[in-house]
C-alpha cells in the first residue's frame, strides 16, 4: 500500500530560556477545526465561496490539497493591505472526483476522518496516507459507522493508515450513537450523510464541538439539533444542496490557550489576546483557568462567522490546583497539555482523570506530558486515565533538560510555555510540529517577550 509521499519536516531542536515578562497584544490565527470545515463545505457547494481568516497551517493545507485532488478549485488571493482571501470553487454534493494519487494527510487527524466521511458516499476510491504520528492513530472509530453506510474500507493492521476508502453511492443513511465523545466521528458520519438519500442521525450523549452543525446550517443544509434524554440528536437531510458562502473564520481558542497560560505563569506578564473563539463547546480552558483563580477577563466581542468571539485580558498571578469536572473535558480536549503546565506551577495537587482519549491524540499526551514535566523537575504521577500534578506553588521549575515533543504541536507549544518559568533553559527536541496549527507561534513568543513594557496596553 502507498506511504506518505511528503518528506517528514526536518526536526528543529530549540532551547528556550526563561525570558522577561510577556507584554502586549496578540491576535490568534484562524480556528483549525473551522478552517477545515470551511474548505470542505465550500468544496461541496455549487459555485464560488470565499473564506477569510483561514488558518494557513500544514493541517489545513493538507485538506486543501486533498480537495483540489478531488476536483475543487482552491485559490489563495492576497489582497493588498486587506485580509488574505481564499476562493473555493465547489463541485456540488455528489460531485467529488476520483483522486489520481494517494491523499497525503500529513499529521492531520481531522483532515483524515472528515474526508473519509466525504469519500464514503461518493462513487470514488481514495487511499489516505499520513506521517508517523497519524499512522499510529485509530481509524476504526470512523471505519465502523462509514462501513455501515456502505463504504468499503481497507485499513492497515490495527485500523490505521494507510487505508483505502471505496465509497458507495447512494450510501445508506444511518442513525448512530457515538461510542466516544468525538466531533471528528460525528462529523464524518454527517458528511457522509450529505450525499445519502434520507435522514442521517447522530446521537451524542456528551456534546462535542458543534462547528459542523453551525456551518452546515449556514451553507443551507437541512439540519436540526434536538436535546433529548439520550443526548444531542443531530438530524441531517441527505442529498443536500449547499449554497456558496462567505465565511470569516474566528481565532482559535486552542491557540489562545498557550498565551493565556504563558501570561499567567510568567511573572510580571500581562497580555490582551484578541479574536478568540469562545464557542461554549470549545471554551472549557477558560472555565478551568477561572476555577483555578486566574486573573483573566473575557470581553465579549460579538460573533464572527456564526461563532462567538472574545478578547481575553490576562495577567500573571497565582493559580490554585484543580480537579476538572469531567463534563468540561470535551470542551477543552486539546488544551490539556497546556493545562498540565498551569497545574505544574499551581499551589497544591491537581488531579486529572477520565482522559484516556488523550492517549490517542497526535501522541500519547498523558505519557508524553508526564515525561516532559518530570524532566523539567515537576512532581507528576501518571495514571491510566490521567495525571496527578503537584504544583510548584508559583516557584520556577528547575528546567535544564531536553524534552521530547513526539510530532505533537501542542506538546511543543505547551513545553515552550513551561520553559518561560524554569531556572535553567529547556531544550525541545523538535519544534517543527508547531507549523501544523500555529506557524507564527515562536516568532510571536519572541515579539511578546521582547515587547517594551512602556508601550504595552494596560489590562484593566
Ligand atoms: C477536532 C476534534 C477533536 C480535536 C481535534 C479537532 C475537530 O478530536 O481533538 O484536534 O476538528 O473535529 P475528537 O473529535 O476526536 O475528540
Overall mean pLDDT score? Answer: 95
Count of discrete alpha- or pi-helical segments spanning 4 or more residues: 12
Q: Name the shape in a single word.
A: globular
Which fold does the CATH topology of the largest domain refer to? UDP-n-acetylglucosamine1-carboxyvinyl-transferase, Chain
- CATH domain class name of the largest domain: Alpha Beta
Helix content: 25-40%
User: Class by helix and strand content?
Assistant: alpha/beta
Low-confidence stretches: 453-460
Strand residue percentage: 25-35%
DSSP, total strands: 24
Could you state the CATH homologous superfamily of the largest domain?
A: Enolpyruvate transferase domain
Indicate how many domains the architecture comprises.
2
TL;DR of this structure?
By secondary structure, the protein is an alpha/beta fold. Helix content is 28%, strand content 27%. It has two domains: 12-29 and 250-458, Enolpyruvate transferase domain (UDP-n-acetylglucosamine1-carboxyvinyl-transferase, Chain, Alpha-beta prism); 32-248, Enolpyruvate transferase domain (UDP-n-acetylglucosamine1-carboxyvinyl-transferase, Chain, Alpha-beta prism).
Q: What features would you describe in this structure?
A:
- By secondary structure, the chain is α/β, with parallel strands linked by helices.
- It folds into two domains: 227 residues, Alpha-beta prism (UDP-n-acetylglucosamine1-carboxyvinyl-transferase, Chain); 217 residues, Enolpyruvate transferase domain (UDP-n-acetylglucosamine1-carboxyvinyl-transferase, Chain, Alpha-beta prism), CATH 3.65.10.10.
- The protein is built from twelve helices and 24 strands.
- A four-stranded mixed β-sheet has the order 2-15-17-16.
- A hairpin with a 2-residue loop joins strand 16 and strand 17.
- Helix 7 runs parallel beside helix 11 and helix 9 packs parallel to helix 10.
- The longest helix has 13 residues.
- It is globular, with a radius of gyration of 21 Å.
- The structure holds shikimate-3-phosphate.
- The site of shikimate-3-phosphate has 10 residues, from helix 5.
- Shikimate-3-phosphate (S3P) binds next to helix 5.
Amino acid at each position: 500500500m502507498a506511504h506518505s509521499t511528503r518528506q517528514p519536516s526536518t526536526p528543529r531542536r530549540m532551547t528556550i530560556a526563561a525570558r522577561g515578562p510577556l507584554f502586549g497584544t496578540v491576535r490568534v490565527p484562524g480556528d483549525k477545526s473551522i478552517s477545515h470545515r470551511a474548505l470542505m463545505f465550500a468544496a461541496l457547494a455549487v459555485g464560488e465561496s470565499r473564506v477569510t481568516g483561514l488558518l494557513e497551517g500544514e493541517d489545513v493545507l493538507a485538506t486543501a490539497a486533498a480537495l483540489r485532488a478531488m476536483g475543487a478549485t482552491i485559490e489563495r488571493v492576497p489582497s493588498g493591505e486587506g485580509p488574505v482571501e481564499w476562493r473555493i470553487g465547489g463541485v456540488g454534493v455528489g460531485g467529488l472526483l476520483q483522486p489520481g494519487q494517494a491523499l497525503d494527510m500529513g499529521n492531520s487527524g481531522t483532515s483524515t476522518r472528515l474526508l473519509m466521511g466525504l469519500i464514503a458516499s461518493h462513487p470514488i476510491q481514495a487511499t489516505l496516507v499520513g506521517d508517523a504520528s497519524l499512522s499510529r492513530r485509530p481509524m476504526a472509530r470512523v471505519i465502523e459507522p462509514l462501513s455501515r453506510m456502505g463504504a468499503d474500507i481497507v485499513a492497515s493492521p490495527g485500523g490505521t493508515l494507510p487505508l483505502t476508502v471505496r465509497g458507495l453511492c447512494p450510501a445508506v443513511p444511518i442513525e448512530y450513537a457515538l461510542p466516544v465523545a468525538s466531533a471528528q466521528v460525528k462529523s464524518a458520519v454527517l458528511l457522509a450523510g450529505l450525499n445519502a438519500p434520507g435522514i442521517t442521525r447522530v446521537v451524542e450523549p456528551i456534546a462535542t464541538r458543534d462547528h459542523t452543525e453551525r456551518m452546515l446550517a449556514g451553507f443551507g443544509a437541512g439540519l436540526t439539533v434536538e436535546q433529548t434524554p439520550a443526548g444531542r440528536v443531530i438530524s441531517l437531510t441527505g442529498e443536500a444542496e449547499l449554497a456558496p458562502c462567505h465565511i470569516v473564520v474566528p481565532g482559535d481558542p486552542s491557540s489562545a490557550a498557550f498565551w493565556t497560560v504563558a501570561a499567567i505563569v510568567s511573572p510580571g506578564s500581562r497580555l490582551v489576546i484578541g479574536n478568540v473563539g469562545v464557542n461554549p463547546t470549545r471554551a472549557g480552558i477558560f472555565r478551568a483557568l477561572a476555577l483555578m483563580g486566574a486573573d483573566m477577563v473575557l470581553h465579549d466581542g460579538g460573533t464572527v462567522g456564526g461563532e462567538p468571539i472574545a478578547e481575553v485580558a490576562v495577567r500573571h498571578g497565582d493559580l490554585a490546583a484543580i480537579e476538572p469536572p469531567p463534563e468540561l473535558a470535551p470542551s477543552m480536549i486539546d488544551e490539556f497539555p497546556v493545562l498540565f503546565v498551569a497545574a505544574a506551577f499551581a499551589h497544591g495537587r491537581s488531579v486529572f482523570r477520565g482522559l484516556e482519549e488523550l492517549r490517542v491524540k497526535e501522541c500519547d499526551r498523558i505519557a508524553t506530558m508526564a515525561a516532559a514535566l518530570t524532566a523539567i523537575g515537576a512532581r507528576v504521577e501518571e495514571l491510566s486515565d490521567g495525571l496527578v500534578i503537584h504544583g510548584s506553588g508559583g516557584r520556577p521549575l528547575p528546567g535544564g533538560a531536553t524534552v521530547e515533543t513526539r510530532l505533537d504541536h501542542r506538546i511543543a507549544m505547551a513545553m515552550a510555555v513551561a520553559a518561560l518559568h524554569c531556572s535553567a533553559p529547556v531544550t525541545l527536541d523538535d519544534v517543527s510540529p508547531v507549523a501544523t496549527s500555529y506557524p507564527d507561534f515562536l516568532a510571536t513568543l519572541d515579539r511578546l517577550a521582547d515587547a517594551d513594557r512602556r508601550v504595552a496596553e494596560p489590562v484593566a
